[in-house]
Design a protein that fits this description.
The chain contains 2 helices and 15 strands. It is of the alpha+beta class and 283 residues long.
Length: 283
Protein backbone atom coordinates (compact mmCIF):
# COMPACT_ATOMS: atom_id res chain seq x y z
CA UNK A 1 0.00 0.00 0.00
CA UNK A 2 1.19 3.49 -0.88
CA UNK A 3 0.88 5.56 2.29
CA UNK A 4 2.47 8.72 0.86
CA UNK A 5 0.95 12.03 1.96
CA UNK A 6 1.47 15.71 1.20
CA UNK A 7 1.73 17.63 4.47
CA UNK A 8 2.35 21.03 2.93
CA UNK A 9 4.32 23.07 0.40
CA UNK A 10 7.07 25.61 0.78
CA UNK A 11 7.49 28.31 -1.88
CA UNK A 12 10.92 28.91 -3.37
CA UNK A 13 9.99 32.14 -5.19
CA UNK A 14 7.07 34.53 -4.85
CA UNK A 15 5.14 35.06 -8.13
CA UNK A 16 5.28 38.68 -9.28
CA UNK A 17 2.60 38.98 -11.96
CA UNK A 18 -0.63 37.40 -13.07
CA UNK A 19 1.12 34.97 -15.42
CA UNK A 20 3.46 33.71 -12.70
CA UNK A 21 0.56 33.37 -10.30
CA UNK A 22 -1.31 31.26 -12.87
CA UNK A 23 1.77 29.16 -13.56
CA UNK A 24 2.38 28.63 -9.84
CA UNK A 25 -1.16 27.30 -9.44
CA UNK A 26 -0.58 24.83 -12.29
CA UNK A 27 2.74 23.79 -10.75
CA UNK A 28 1.07 23.33 -7.37
CA UNK A 29 -1.41 20.86 -8.81
CA UNK A 30 1.38 18.89 -10.50
CA UNK A 31 3.41 18.82 -7.28
CA UNK A 32 0.80 16.51 -5.73
CA UNK A 33 2.22 13.80 -8.00
CA UNK A 34 5.13 13.53 -5.55
CA UNK A 35 3.25 10.80 -3.65
CA UNK A 36 2.85 8.49 -6.67
CA UNK A 37 5.24 5.53 -6.83
CA UNK A 38 6.13 4.77 -10.45
CA UNK A 39 7.22 1.34 -11.70
CA UNK A 40 7.27 -0.47 -8.37
CA UNK A 41 9.40 -3.65 -8.50
CA UNK A 42 9.37 -6.09 -5.55
CA UNK A 43 11.87 -8.84 -4.82
CA UNK A 44 12.18 -11.20 -1.85
CA UNK A 45 15.30 -12.71 -0.27
CA UNK A 46 15.40 -15.38 2.45
CA UNK A 47 17.97 -13.78 4.77
CA UNK A 48 18.68 -16.63 7.25
CA UNK A 49 15.43 -18.51 6.61
CA UNK A 50 15.84 -22.18 5.53
CA UNK A 51 14.15 -21.78 2.17
CA UNK A 52 14.69 -20.80 -1.45
CA UNK A 53 12.82 -18.07 -3.34
CA UNK A 54 11.74 -19.51 -6.69
CA UNK A 55 10.11 -16.37 -8.15
CA UNK A 56 12.06 -13.56 -9.78
CA UNK A 57 11.31 -9.88 -9.00
CA UNK A 58 7.75 -8.84 -9.88
CA UNK A 59 6.18 -5.59 -10.97
CA UNK A 60 3.41 -3.91 -9.00
CA UNK A 61 3.12 -1.11 -11.55
CA UNK A 62 2.29 2.46 -10.55
CA UNK A 63 0.67 2.95 -7.14
CA UNK A 64 -0.91 6.28 -6.21
CA UNK A 65 -1.31 7.55 -2.67
CA UNK A 66 -3.74 5.39 -0.66
CA UNK A 67 -3.88 2.64 -3.30
CA UNK A 68 -3.36 -1.04 -2.50
CA UNK A 69 -1.69 -3.06 -5.23
CA UNK A 70 -2.82 -6.46 -6.42
CA UNK A 71 -1.13 -9.24 -4.39
CA UNK A 72 2.25 -10.35 -5.70
CA UNK A 73 2.80 -14.08 -5.31
CA UNK A 74 6.23 -15.58 -4.68
CA UNK A 75 6.86 -19.32 -4.78
CA UNK A 76 9.15 -20.54 -2.02
CA UNK A 77 10.60 -23.97 -1.30
CA UNK A 78 11.27 -24.83 2.33
CA UNK A 79 14.35 -26.99 2.88
CA UNK A 80 13.80 -30.63 3.85
CA UNK A 81 15.79 -30.20 7.05
CA UNK A 82 14.10 -26.93 8.06
CA UNK A 83 12.91 -26.72 11.65
CA UNK A 84 9.45 -25.46 12.41
CA UNK A 85 9.42 -21.88 13.62
CA UNK A 86 9.13 -18.20 12.70
CA UNK A 87 11.46 -16.72 10.10
CA UNK A 88 11.98 -13.31 8.52
CA UNK A 89 12.19 -12.47 4.83
CA UNK A 90 13.58 -9.29 3.30
CA UNK A 91 11.37 -7.48 0.77
CA UNK A 92 13.17 -5.01 -1.46
CA UNK A 93 11.18 -2.32 -3.32
CA UNK A 94 12.50 -0.11 -6.09
CA UNK A 95 10.50 2.66 -7.74
CA UNK A 96 10.64 6.27 -8.92
CA UNK A 97 8.79 9.31 -7.71
CA UNK A 98 8.41 12.89 -8.88
CA UNK A 99 10.99 14.90 -6.95
CA UNK A 100 10.48 18.33 -8.48
CA UNK A 101 8.32 20.16 -11.06
CA UNK A 102 9.07 23.40 -12.90
CA UNK A 103 6.38 25.08 -15.00
CA UNK A 104 7.18 27.80 -17.55
CA UNK A 105 5.32 29.55 -20.37
CA UNK A 106 2.30 31.74 -20.97
CA UNK A 107 -0.75 30.74 -19.00
CA UNK A 108 -2.99 33.08 -20.97
CA UNK A 109 -2.27 31.41 -24.33
CA UNK A 110 -1.88 28.00 -22.68
CA UNK A 111 1.66 27.67 -24.00
CA UNK A 112 3.09 25.86 -20.99
CA UNK A 113 6.14 23.63 -20.55
CA UNK A 114 6.54 21.34 -17.54
CA UNK A 115 9.93 19.98 -16.53
CA UNK A 116 9.71 17.05 -14.14
CA UNK A 117 12.64 15.58 -12.22
CA UNK A 118 12.31 11.96 -11.01
CA UNK A 119 14.28 10.22 -8.28
CA UNK A 120 15.06 6.51 -7.88
CA UNK A 121 14.20 4.95 -4.51
CA UNK A 122 15.34 1.67 -3.00
CA UNK A 123 13.72 0.65 0.28
CA UNK A 124 13.51 -2.57 2.29
CA UNK A 125 10.87 -4.14 4.51
CA UNK A 126 10.83 -7.17 6.79
CA UNK A 127 8.01 -9.69 6.68
CA UNK A 128 7.50 -12.77 8.87
CA UNK A 129 6.53 -16.28 7.81
CA UNK A 130 5.81 -19.38 9.86
CA UNK A 131 7.08 -22.87 9.01
CA UNK A 132 4.62 -25.25 10.62
CA UNK A 133 5.42 -28.57 12.19
CA UNK A 134 4.68 -31.59 10.03
CA UNK A 135 5.46 -35.25 9.67
CA UNK A 136 8.18 -36.18 7.19
CA UNK A 137 9.34 -39.56 6.02
CA UNK A 138 12.51 -41.28 4.90
CA UNK A 139 13.12 -44.77 3.52
CA UNK A 140 15.81 -46.35 5.69
CA UNK A 141 16.18 -49.68 3.87
CA UNK A 142 14.77 -51.62 0.92
CA UNK A 143 14.74 -55.41 0.62
CA UNK A 144 13.41 -57.45 -2.28
CA UNK A 145 13.84 -60.74 -4.14
CA UNK A 146 12.20 -59.97 -7.45
CA UNK A 147 12.72 -62.17 -10.52
CA UNK A 148 11.29 -61.92 -14.04
CA UNK A 149 7.88 -63.57 -14.55
CA UNK A 150 7.37 -64.13 -10.82
CA UNK A 151 5.79 -62.54 -7.78
CA UNK A 152 7.90 -61.40 -4.86
CA UNK A 153 7.90 -59.34 -1.68
CA UNK A 154 9.18 -55.77 -1.57
CA UNK A 155 9.96 -54.60 1.98
CA UNK A 156 10.59 -50.92 2.76
CA UNK A 157 11.42 -49.54 6.20
CA UNK A 158 10.14 -45.99 6.80
CA UNK A 159 11.05 -43.49 9.51
CA UNK A 160 9.10 -40.40 10.57
CA UNK A 161 11.85 -37.77 10.55
CA UNK A 162 9.43 -34.85 10.98
CA UNK A 163 8.36 -32.92 14.06
CA UNK A 164 4.75 -34.06 14.20
CA UNK A 165 2.89 -37.34 14.67
CA UNK A 166 1.40 -38.97 11.56
CA UNK A 167 -1.95 -40.61 12.27
CA UNK A 168 -3.33 -43.53 10.26
CA UNK A 169 -0.43 -43.43 7.85
CA UNK A 170 -0.39 -45.59 4.70
CA UNK A 171 2.37 -46.09 2.15
CA UNK A 172 1.28 -46.21 -1.49
CA UNK A 173 3.42 -47.40 -4.42
CA UNK A 174 3.29 -45.78 -7.84
CA UNK A 175 4.27 -48.62 -10.16
CA UNK A 176 5.16 -48.72 -13.84
CA UNK A 177 6.60 -51.36 -16.16
CA UNK A 178 7.90 -53.93 -15.44
CA UNK A 179 6.08 -53.94 -12.06
CA UNK A 180 2.43 -54.35 -11.21
CA UNK A 181 0.49 -55.24 -8.08
CA UNK A 182 -2.94 -55.61 -6.57
CA UNK A 183 -1.36 -54.88 -3.19
CA UNK A 184 0.25 -51.46 -3.71
CA UNK A 185 -0.86 -49.95 -0.36
CA UNK A 186 0.48 -50.86 3.09
CA UNK A 187 -0.95 -49.59 6.37
CA UNK A 188 1.71 -48.08 8.67
CA UNK A 189 -0.53 -46.96 11.54
CA UNK A 190 0.23 -44.07 13.86
CA UNK A 191 3.85 -42.92 13.63
CA UNK A 192 5.30 -40.67 16.29
CA UNK A 193 8.44 -38.65 15.63
CA UNK A 194 11.41 -41.02 15.06
CA UNK A 195 9.11 -44.09 14.79
CA UNK A 196 10.28 -46.79 12.34
CA UNK A 197 7.81 -49.09 10.54
CA UNK A 198 8.34 -51.76 7.88
CA UNK A 199 5.88 -52.09 5.00
CA UNK A 200 5.59 -55.14 2.72
CA UNK A 201 4.17 -55.23 -0.79
CA UNK A 202 3.41 -58.18 -3.09
CA UNK A 203 4.90 -57.28 -6.49
CA UNK A 204 4.47 -58.96 -9.88
CA UNK A 205 7.33 -58.71 -12.38
CA UNK A 206 6.88 -58.97 -16.16
CA UNK A 207 8.55 -61.90 -17.86
CA UNK A 208 10.44 -59.53 -20.19
CA UNK A 209 11.81 -57.39 -17.35
CA UNK A 210 15.37 -56.18 -17.84
CA UNK A 211 17.78 -57.23 -15.12
CA UNK A 212 18.67 -53.93 -13.44
CA UNK A 213 17.84 -51.56 -10.58
CA UNK A 214 14.63 -49.56 -11.02
CA UNK A 215 13.42 -46.45 -9.19
CA UNK A 216 10.02 -46.90 -7.57
CA UNK A 217 8.01 -43.98 -6.20
CA UNK A 218 6.34 -44.17 -2.80
CA UNK A 219 3.99 -41.64 -1.19
CA UNK A 220 2.71 -41.69 2.37
CA UNK A 221 -0.80 -40.49 3.14
CA UNK A 222 -1.59 -39.56 6.73
CA UNK A 223 -3.62 -37.27 8.97
CA UNK A 224 -1.95 -34.37 10.77
CA UNK A 225 -2.71 -33.13 14.28
CA UNK A 226 -5.67 -31.09 12.97
CA UNK A 227 -7.16 -34.16 11.31
CA UNK A 228 -6.41 -32.96 7.79
CA UNK A 229 -5.30 -35.52 5.21
CA UNK A 230 -1.77 -34.92 3.96
CA UNK A 231 0.40 -36.59 1.33
CA UNK A 232 4.16 -36.65 1.77
CA UNK A 233 6.71 -35.69 -0.84
CA UNK A 234 7.57 -38.50 -3.23
CA UNK A 235 10.11 -40.97 -1.89
CA UNK A 236 12.22 -42.80 -4.48
CA UNK A 237 13.51 -46.27 -3.58
CA UNK A 238 15.80 -48.60 -5.58
CA UNK A 239 14.26 -51.96 -6.52
CA UNK A 240 16.39 -54.59 -8.28
CA UNK A 241 15.20 -57.30 -10.65
CA UNK A 242 17.67 -60.17 -10.34
CA UNK A 243 18.54 -63.07 -12.61
CA UNK A 244 16.50 -66.23 -12.14
CA UNK A 245 18.49 -68.80 -10.18
CA UNK A 246 19.18 -71.98 -12.18
CA UNK A 247 19.54 -75.29 -10.47
CA UNK A 248 22.93 -76.89 -10.97
CA UNK A 249 22.82 -79.80 -13.49
CA UNK A 250 24.42 -83.17 -12.99
CA UNK A 251 27.61 -82.19 -14.78
CA UNK A 252 27.85 -78.66 -13.35
CA UNK A 253 29.12 -79.94 -9.98
CA UNK A 254 32.92 -80.28 -10.15
CA UNK A 255 33.11 -82.55 -7.07
CA UNK A 256 30.52 -84.89 -8.56
CA UNK A 257 32.41 -84.97 -11.86
CA UNK A 258 35.67 -85.90 -10.10
CA UNK A 259 33.88 -88.64 -8.21
CA UNK A 260 32.37 -90.11 -11.36
CA UNK A 261 35.77 -90.03 -13.10
CA UNK A 262 37.39 -91.90 -10.19
CA UNK A 263 34.64 -94.50 -10.13
CA UNK A 264 34.93 -95.05 -13.87
CA UNK A 265 38.71 -95.33 -13.57
CA UNK A 266 38.42 -98.00 -10.83
CA UNK A 267 35.79 -99.94 -12.79
CA UNK A 268 37.96 -99.80 -15.90
CA UNK A 269 40.98 -100.99 -13.91
CA UNK A 270 39.15 -104.05 -12.51
CA UNK A 271 37.51 -104.80 -15.84
CA UNK A 272 40.87 -104.75 -17.64
CA UNK A 273 42.50 -106.94 -14.94
CA UNK A 274 39.67 -109.46 -15.10
CA UNK A 275 39.92 -109.71 -18.87
CA UNK A 276 43.61 -110.54 -18.56
CA UNK A 277 42.84 -113.24 -15.99
CA UNK A 278 40.23 -114.82 -18.21
CA UNK A 279 42.68 -115.10 -21.09
CA UNK A 280 45.24 -116.94 -18.86
CA UNK A 281 42.66 -119.58 -17.85
CA UNK A 282 41.82 -120.41 -21.45
CA UNK A 283 45.47 -121.30 -22.20
Amino acid sequence: MNQGKVLGFESDDKPEDANEIALSKIELQQEYGVTTALGVIASVSPMDAPLDIKTSPQSAGTIISGQVSDPLQFDIEVWDNAKAGTYQLLVNLTYQYQEDVQVEGNATTNEIDSNILYKEVNETHIITIIVNKQADFKALSVESDLLPDTSGILSITFKNTGEEKATRASARLRLSDPFSSTDFTAYLGDMEQEDVVQAKFDIDVDKDATLKVYSVTVEIEYEDMEGETKISDSIYVPVEVKETKKEAGLFQNPILIIGIVLILAVLLFFFTKRRKGDRGTDK
